[in-house]
Amino acid sequence: MKKILICIMVLLVLGSTVLFVGCKKKEPEIAEKPFAGQKITVLYFSATYAEAAKEYSAEFTELTGAEVEVVDFPYITLYEKMGLALSTGDDTYDVVTPACQWDGEFEPFMEDLEPYIKRDNFDTSDFLPGLWEQSGKWAGKIMGLPFSNTPQTLSYRTDLIDEFPQTWDDFFVLMDKLHDPPDLYAISYPGVKEQFSGLWMMVQWSLGGRWADENWNLTIDSPETREALKIARKWVDYADPAAPAWTLAEADAAFLQGNAAVCFTWPTLAIAPNGDNPEKSKVVGKWAIAPIPYAKNGVTVLSSWDIGIPKAAKHKDAAWEWIKFYTSKEKQLKNFIDYSILPSRESVWEQPEVKNSKLYPHKAASDQGAVIWWRIPAGTMAETYVRDAVANYITDQWDLEKSVKFMEDGFSKLLSEYPPAPGIKNTGR
């Protein structure tokens, strides 16, 4: 009898356990993230663009499951690494970010994004039209979306300069008054082998000069070219003697430390993010941004970067998700607030945080969409001739006529060896 009671009790316990388990609330299934297990590698310029990408990578992984590796290089190295990977079919990078002047050279190796845009009904109407035509579109193809646009401006000290001059004559009169080395140099600039040639190109364009007309007939041998070279040479007299060897970072640091009255760099890369941070700046509340002096063409010129997918990429759908994510309105606003990256979307420019900022005057220049570079395969090679000619002239190695002839001969050779495709007009300078 005792054995029977024990068996009955065991059965009752087992039955209640089964009943409890059967009634237990079922845990909801966790939806699998669409790109779980994938890893994309994205390539950026070593600047605020890459810093923002690194910050956002964990959030993107949480949303999609895809791990993100951000690789970045300085400007010249980036061009070499990107060009080699694209032209050889290397599948290392799932996303690349060409500078707008590289578009014509790299377009054959890039995916057309139009099918992705149509598939996802992705709204592109918010991107600045003039900007997109100059950065991300080439020969009828959408090879990328513009994610930044940076009109070339300069930074100046508001405690030393009440109103920035609009002509080069007035500019140099002011520099004479301010220049007081070694305590204060009137100008800081990036070294002659880095971005100095780009500054010269900007001046030549602002004076009305061009490298060639719209049909690729050379116009580099001009009074504007010579005048721009003379202006750039005069900058050297107002700068720290070490400036010819400086990087962008060193030129910016000279301004932020209060050692220069005017800085010829890209203000959005370091001065705007750090200028009012007392831990990084000695000019807090004492700086502003202005266009360079000009005579004929606009108020400034545009540098832009676009983001796209190489044809050889391994994870194209995940790459496209990253592009949508990185160029979204939310991220563009955060890019501006945290990194001073100027937006490529019209709606973001109109947000209060942007519209009421020191950087909003860039909007007018962004709308112009003017670039100074040739956006053809020969364009970047042409820049090397400019770089050598300008560097040798401002360091007194070559005279004016040798510098101009060197550029003209080099351009002629390039256009002969790498002619623009039929129908391609010179929309740059």
Q: Give the biggest sheet.
A: 4 strands, mixed
CATH class of the largest domain: Alpha Beta
CATH superfamily of the largest domain: Periplasmic binding protein-like II
Tally of contiguous helical segments: 18
Spatial strand order of the main sheet: 7-8-6-9
Rounded mean pLDDT is 89
Total DSSP E strands: 10
What is the helix fraction of residues, given as a range?
40-55%
Distance between the termini: 106 Å
Shape: globular
Secondary structure class reads: alpha/beta
Strand content: 5-15%
Q: How many discrete domains?
A: 2
> Regions with pLDDT < 50 over 5+ consecutive residues?
1-30
Q: What's the CATH topology name of the largest domain?
A: D-Maltodextrin-Binding Protein, domain 2
The radius of gyration is 27 Å
Q: If classified by CATH, what would the architecture of the largest domain be?
A: 3-Layer(aba) Sandwich
Report on the structure:
The chain is an alpha/beta fold. The chain has 18 helices and ten strands. It has helices at 2-23, 48-64, 75-88, 103-106, 114-119, 129-134, 168-178, 196-206, 223-236, 248-256, 271-274, 316-326, 329-339, 346-349, 352-355, 362-368, 377-394, 400-417, and strands spanning 39-45, 67-73, 137-138, 141-142, 145-151, 154-157, 185-188, 260-263, 287-290, 302-307. Mean pLDDT is 89; it is low at 1-30.
